[in-house]
Amino acid sequence: MIAAAVPMATGLFMLTSQDQTIFMLGLVGYLGFTYAPGAMLYACAPDMVPKGTNLGPVYGLLATISNAGSFVTPIIVGRIKDATGDFNPGFILLGTLCTLSLLLSLRLKAR
Length: 111
Description:
Layout: H1 2-14, H2 20-34, H3 36-48, H4 55-84, H5 88-106
Helix pairs in contact: 1-2, 1-5, 3-4, 4-5
């Protein structure tokens, strides 16, 4: 997860650049690593819950959180763009949230 979070956060911050080359590198960095953490999370779910637990509600919760984020985030970024007239504050917010997620994931302890 950490290997995907660093390029993803860096890519989001690079999307604020006015230089087209840096913008495109940021876009590739962001899009290239966006879907990697989700796949790892679904693959690790059976190992994270106690043995004998029904996995249906666990996957349901993962899907609900993922879909809620996919629904709410574009609305928030759109409102920020409407308020400021620029996409940069929205990208900075997303980069900051990715960085916060990285820092929180570093606090997880291995079993």
